[in-house]
Amino acid sequence: MDKLVLILGDQLNFDMSSLQGFDSKTDKVLMAEVKAEATYVKHHKKKLAFVFSAMRHFALAVKDKGWPIDYYRYDASDNCGSLGAHVEHAIKQYQPNSLVVCHPGEYRLLEEISGWSERFNINVQICDDNRFIAAQSFFSQWAEGKKQFRMEFFYRELRKQTSILMEGKQPIGGKWNYDADNRDSFKSVPTIPAPSSFSIDNITQEVIDLVDEEFASHFGTLKGFHFAVDREGALRVLHTFIEERLCDFGQYQDAMLEGDPWLYHSHIGLYLNTGLLMPMEVIQAAEQAYFDQKAPLNSVEGFIRQVLGWREYVRGFYWHFMPNLKTDNYLNAARKLPNFYWTANTKMNCLSQCVSDTQEHAYAHHIQRLMVLGNFALLAGIQPDELNEWFLLVYADAYEWVELPNVSAMVLFADGGNLASKPYGSSGAYINKMSNYCKNCHYSVKEKTGEKACPFNYMYWHFLHRNKSKFENNPRMAMIYRTFGKMDDAKVTRILEDGDIFLQKLDNNEEV
Fold first, then answer.
1. Which domain holds residue 35?
2. H or E stretch including 201?
3. Model confidence over 335-368: pLDDT tens digits?
4. Does one domain contain both 257 and 161?
């Protein structure tokens, strides 16, 4: 055998760099539903069902091409339990000249794979990860000599390099960023096209039964599973978004609505992050919708910025700042994650809604994650390890390369400001502005202190008080601290007392 090609569970595309030049006469594909990967955190049941089903569908497509493949199911008697054990077994069995694998998306896997050459006495070829547009080295080259790292300027560089939404050297429409046009909330409950939904085939049903039996204690539910599990389905999700929801996506991308987590979003993160969709085809589909006058520029640019800007940026940021990013804790946050992140049992309706959505769908959109779930964790001082593990396991699109920068750096400011110029914390006013959650809440968003006050209100100022030494000299927070400094002493005392009482309730696992 010439090449043994290892395909990981998030590399499900025939265009993967590791499969280029594959010769069915001399090469073999290796895939496995690895027990160690499925259980190192207790992944959401729908996430496991999606990944295993997508892997099995891809393996079937490999066989349909006439390519030789060894595929190990999770419950197979000969499942070796870990990637390394499967690779070692295959090398002993086939004696290949080389092992080929696409660069993994997580630091811990890269460390393991980098040791295989010596461990197994074989040439290991780690190919560039072409699930991204920018080379992995691009971020570090761009960041060299910079004192601050801001996504906006990284994004502009990629726009120039790819010529996406460009007229020569200038952005189409004269502006790089239309974020200011993309912050509307719903004045009334709109009629929104339903998200793409797929029936469960025999392969997926087998996986659902497996997950139901083997992972019964994991977070979430399998009820209502409707994800696409192959490339054809993923392309349908993309096409439906472009045709039905992209037009209104920009204006309402930050809005939240009780009882509807899907809204106008694309819901393609899980397909991009498993390779079922490639980023450039997604970006070009959105760009073409603008050229065809199917969607306005603010929507198209806002969507493209998520893929070409933020997705590329956090991936580069992750590799540039690892492994320290995993242990950063700039604010010395030490509080345990409250139980309601698992149960949704809280009187704060916004948090109950977002946890319930997550529990049911393995999905919540970016503002739910950042400005409700993340915002609360920031204000309450939740330790990074606790929140990182939660975000990694509950979302179907979560892998460490995307989750860790978003949670540690963006949500918790644990990296001290390499990613964000200030903490993304807010009082209840922002949540009330962007959603209808507050209307059905036990607490009153209009009350600033007292038993009926929205906890976000006093917790915001409590957070600023606790971390004054960290932020009072931050130029973007100077006005906030001036406002805080002008409050009368009695009001400040009430705020701090309410915050202390609330945090004590969290520590005691009392209902809040």
1. 3-127
2. none
3. 999 999 999 999 999 999 999 999 999 999 999 9
4. yes
